[in-house]
Design goal:
The complex is a heterotrimer of chains A (552), B (99) and C (199).
Chain A: H1 2-29, H2 54-90, H3 98-117, H4 143-171, H5 184-215, E1 227-228, E2 231-232, H6 241-275, H7 282-295, H8 311-339, H9 348-365, H10 368-371, H11 373-379, H12 383-413, H13 419-445, H14 468-496
Helix pairs in contact in A: 1-2, 1-3, 1-14, 2-3, 2-4, 2-5, 2-6, 2-12, 3-4, 4-5, 5-6, 5-7, 6-8, 6-9, 6-12, 7-8, 9-12, 9-13, 12-13, 13-14
Chain B: H1 8-34, H2 39-61, H3 69-94
Chain C: H1 20-48, H2 62-87, H3 91-121, H4 130-157, H5 163-166, H6 168-198
Classes of the chains: A mainly alpha (552), B mainly alpha (99), C mainly alpha (199).
Chain lengths: 552, 99, 199
């Protein structure tokens, strides 16, 4: 199944991206000390004597962001979960276009290869941040060109995937499965796919133009009279670096919701299942997400308050940004209220799902000062921003995806993952994640810039908070140890795990109505759906759950 | 477009009429560009003609007139975001802080 | 991986009224709209931000572009006639119209080739100024789309047309889908022509 291929590939990329940042954390904690044990692997051009050069640090930073977002989480949340679960949850025999699906995976894979191969170029990989702001990116070394071509492939893959997911959901729903009987995860994937479809082409166009700037010498993003290293550049000028930011963030803000919506979907499924209660306000949840998706196209310039935008347009974006926090709050509140009065089963997936709620809450609420113009002036480009979006994505989205992996593992393999190891993994990850990201708020409030190679060692204003760098770094390495437990658990349980029954979590949704693993065509007979997705604890029914396809 | 009972003859007549209209409009847009009007009027004129032409192509060749609701709504959504994409960068560049 | 088991590949689903491919191609086209939308947005953004903007015809050849407009619009009608011939179950007419569509598409490319080489001979490159940068990027991307459409059409004229024997209904749908894409390429050109050459 292509879903599993997507899942494994993206997990490998996630771990690789994590390794990059662990190297960076060494440099931040102990500036200009040689990296122990593996320092000599990186060559004289990157780390002479094992001491990381600033150029290499920049490469690691840019590639960490790119790999985590575009090669790790998007393919895992959308590629893997949508590919595997959407056809099952809507009662379809397969995705609507199986060949397109395969093409989408291989284009993604190729994009990943292009990205990784750029490390071996002279001058190394892209080093202008994951945002690749012009003009810096335009004059950067050849790694940037690879980055652009890689992005082009990854975006194309996402577009193909999005078309496929939308068509599958709209066209292949089983008889009786009306829109408001869809599990929320399917809704989330539908909205996510629309975001992918309509937001990603903007960066595709921008990537083409940056490629033209780099290879054909055009000046789309190059202002007139630019001087680099004492030499006037040959560009004719007349372009605008701000234009790149507009096109980039037109993609990248909806991208944030691409990362978070599938996570919310996964968490909703798991919370309903493990509280044994219907979701409180299912329709509200759906409407809030639709509104969220729509609004996400009208907030992007809050990333650009510092580009010299006028007050009118800044106020406009400040307002839309405050508005978009409302549906997020609605979603989170809905999930919290669902917990009320439930008899909660604290298994590993549920623990991760429960942790998602406050972690996403912290991530979301710390975003508000960044969305307000006045406070953003102080906080812009500091570690505060790093802390904010990592809370959303790392202990937020990644926890939700872990929850999903633990929850659907019996569906993938027919075996359960080990609960004890799972709980150790959870507790360790939970503590370490907070240990890494919470100090970032303190460092950021002190005004330390996010891009400093030495973690602020030479800066007077960073002296008071410099010691936190070591704390964060140690937590990040310990976090890695806990992930080893997860990796072990994943492979151990695949072959040696406890065999699970057909519907181990007593769930109501259609994916549990197929044999495990799902045969060709998924369902033996096309299921007919009689009711909504969360019919738990139905009064008068002998079991505490009522599957969607069961006739009463 | 459902093709169960398409009247082939009337369709081909309609297509040829649209084709002729498109040709006339092409000539018109080239002609209009030689008129001595201000740049603003010229832009508006050319865009109106292009919009008419594209409506004909999309509506008749691509069967959008009478297409199913789901496709129409998808396109309306796209057009809204298309307008965002065109206008917001423009407004922000018009409303930038002058030094 | 057999595709026979997937419902609504040929027939329309009752509640949505479309089949899978029809919805799929329209979704794909929406993303194309956004792709070219970003380029047009760039054009407006850069033009508004500049002091003097050259008149397109001072660099570019309007007659050649007008000729190309005629080629593309004509190819659009032959494409739709090709589809209509299949509705009429007239396969030989389909082949004739499809061949014509492909030839017109090729004629477009030939004219474009002469236009590009004429620019290079006068030392006009994408790097010469922002207007030419936009011109080469926008038309270049459009040319890639034309080539893509031509490949699809050639496939359906020769090897792909075997499906007419085995599954005529599906083949007809495929031509309609290919047509939608081809008309879209035409539609983009309808905007590119005045925006780049005439304004």
């Amino acid at each position: 199944m292509i879903g599993i291929q997507y899942g494994l590939t993206s997990l490998i990329f996630l771990f690789f991206g994590f390794c990059l940042v662990m190297l960076m954390r060494w440099q931040l904690a102990y500036p200009e000390q040689p990296i122990p044990f593996i320092g000599s692997w990186f060559g004289e051009s990157n780390a002479p004597g094992g001491i990381m050069l600033p150029e290499f640090y920049n490469q690691l930073g840019a590639m960490h962001g790119t790999i985590m977002v575009f090669l790790g989480i998007v393919p895992l949340a959308v590629g893997a979960f949508a590919n595997y679960l959407v056809p099952l949850q809507v009662g379809a025999p397969d995705m609507a276009f199986p060949k397109l699906n395969m093409a989408s995976y291989w284009v993604y894979f190729l994009g990943g290869i292009v990205m990784l191969s750029s490390f071996f170029l002279p001058g190394g990989a892209a080093s202008s941040g994951w945002t690749s702001y012009a003009p810096l990116a335009v004059v950067a070394s050849v790694g940037q060109t690879y980055w652009l071509f890689g992005m082009f492939l990854l975006i194309t893959s996402s577009l193909l995937g999005a078309v496929n997911i939308i068509v599958t959901i709209i066209q292949l729903r089983a008889p009786g499965l009306t829109y408001f009987r869809l599990p929320f995860l399917v809704w989330a994937q539908l909205i996510t796919s629309f975001l992918l479809l309509l937001a990603f082409p903007a960066l595709e166009a921008a990537a083409v133009m940056q490629i033209m700037d780099r290879l054909a010498g055009t000046s789309f993003f190059m202002p007139s009279g630019l001087v680099v290293s004492g030499e006037v550049l040959k560009y004719t000028g007349g372009g605008s670096p701000v234009l790149w930011q507009h096109l980039f963030w037109f993609l990248a803000h909806p991208e944030v919701y691409v990362l978070i919506l599938p996570a919310m979907g996964v968490v909703t499924e798991i919370i309903a299942n493990n509280t044994r209660k219907p979701i409180w306000g299912y329709r509200g949840l759906v409407y809030a997400s639709l509104f969220l998706g729509f609004m996400s196209f009208a907030v992007w310039a809050h990333h650009m308050f510092m580009t010299g935008m006028g007050t009118t347009i800044s106020t406009f974006f400040q307002t839309t940004t405050m508005i978009i926090s409302v549906p997020s709050i609605v979603i989170i509140t809905t999930l919290f209220i669902t917990l009320w009065g439930g008899s909660i089963r604290f298994n590993t997936p549920m623990l991760f799902a429960l942790a998602f709620l406050p972690m996403f809450g912290i991530g979301g609420l710390t975003g508000l000062p960044l969305g307000l113009n006045a406070t953003d002036i102080a906080l812009h480009d500091t570690y505060y921003v790093i802390g904010h979006f990592h809370y959303v994505v790392a202990p937020g989205t990644i926890f939700a995806l872990f929850a999903g992996i633990y929850f659907w593992f019996p569906k993938f393999t027919g075996r359960k993952m080990n609960e004890k190891l799972g709980k150790i993994h959870f507790v360790g990850s939970f503590i370490c994640m907070n240990g890494i990201f919470f100090p970032m708020f303190l460092v950021g409030l002190a005004g330390v810039s996010r891009r400093l190679w030495d973690g602020g060692e030479q800066y007077a204003h960073a002296q008071g908070v410099f010691r936190y760098n070591e704390t964060m770094s140690i937590f990040s390495w310990v976090l890695a140890l806990f992930q080893l437990i997860f990796i072990f658990n994943l492979f151990y349980s695949m072959w040696k795990g406890k065999k699970s029954e057909e519907n181990p979590w007593q769930s109501t949704t259609l994916e549990w109505a197929t044999p495990t693993p799902p045969p060709h065509g998924n369902f033996e007979v096309t299921p007919t759906v009689y009711r909504g997705p969360y019919e738990y604890s139905v009064p008068g029914h002998p079991t505490d759950y009522l599957p969607q396809n069961q006739k009463v | 477009m459902t093709t169960h009972n398409v009247d082939v003859k009337s369709h081909s007549k309609k297509y040829i009429k649209v084709y002729l209209a498109l040709m006339v409009l092409t000539v018109l847009t080239v002609y209009a560009s030689f008129l001595t009007v201000s740049v603003g009027v010229g832009i508006i004129l050319a865009l109106i003609i292009a919009s008419v032409k594209s409506t004909l192509v999309a509506g008749i060749f691509m069967h959008l007139f009478g297409e199913k609701k789901i496709i129409i709504w998808t396109l309306i959504l796209t057009i809204i975001f298309f307008i965002f994409l065109i206008l917001i960068p423009l407004f922000s560049s018009l409303d930038s802080i002058k030094y | 991986m057999s595709t026979e088991i997937i419902p609504y590949t040929i027939e329309e689903r009752e509640d949505t009224g479309v089949n899978n491919a029809k919805l799929g191609i329209w979704l794909f086209l929406t993303s194309e709209v956004m792709l070219f939308g970003a380029l047009f947005s760039t054009y407006i953004f850069l033009r508004v931000g500049t002091i003097n903007w050259p008149v397109g015809s001072s660099f570019l050849s309007v007659p050649m572009a007008a000729l190309n407009t005629v080629f593309l619009i004509t190819s659009s009608i032959t494409m739709v006639m090709a589809w209509l011939s299949l509705v009429d179950k007239n396969f030989s007419a389909y082949r004739k119209y499809m061949l014509l569509t492909i030839l017109l598409g090729c004629a477009f490319l030939v004219v474009k080739y002469f236009e590009y080489t004429a620019k290079f001979e006068h030392n006009l490159y994408p790097s010469t100024n922002t207007f030419l940068g936009l011109y080469f990027t926008m038309t270049g991307l459009h040319v890639l789309h034309v080539i893509g459409g031509l490949i699809v059409n050639i496939y359906f004229l020769f090897p792909g047309s075997k499906m007419w024997e085995s599954n005529p209904e599906r083949f007809k749908n495929r031509i309609e889908i290919a047509g939608l894409y081809w008309h879209f390429v035409d539609l983009v050109w309808i905007f590119l022509f005045p925006v780049l050459y005439l304004l």
